[in-house]
Design brief:
single chain, alpha/beta, Rossmann fold
């Protein structure tokens, strides 16, 4: 099964997503910000990245730009729970995210989005 990197500064959100994905048979790697996420991409070589937009140290849009410049074929799902997440998510899509999800999202919505971007 595919390896998925979850990059989110919220421990609770990472664990929630990891739980869903482990139940579905995915291998999970976690990172708590964009900088550690970029290191994990190099070390772990995930098949997909789920990336929060609003994070400390290196936020999601900057991380998307780096990933798309270095690994243009790596699928990215951008997520955001910000009160202005429509703006953030549309920017993420414009800068290279393959799909976007607004938090909170349903388990089925996450799994379906993963299937779509990995197809």
């Amino acid at each position: 099964m595919a390896k998925i990197l979850i990059v989110d500064d919220s421990f609770t959100t990472r664990k929630f997503i990891a739980h869903i994905l482990k139940k579905s048979g995915f291998e999970i790697v976690e990172a708590d910000n964009g900088e550690s996420g970029l290191k994990s991409v190099k070390e772990e070589k995930p098949d997909l990245v789920i990336l929060d937009i609003v994070m400390p140290e290196k936020e999601g849009i900057d991380t998307i730009l780096v990933l798309k410049n270095t690994l243009p074929d790596l699928p990215i799902i951008a997520i955001s729970g910000s009160s202005i997440n429509d703006t953030y998510l549309s920017s993420a899509k414009k800068f290279g995210a393959n799909a976007v999800l607004a938090k909170p999202f349903e388990e089925s919505e996450l799994i379906e989005t993963i299937k779509e971007v990995m197809a």
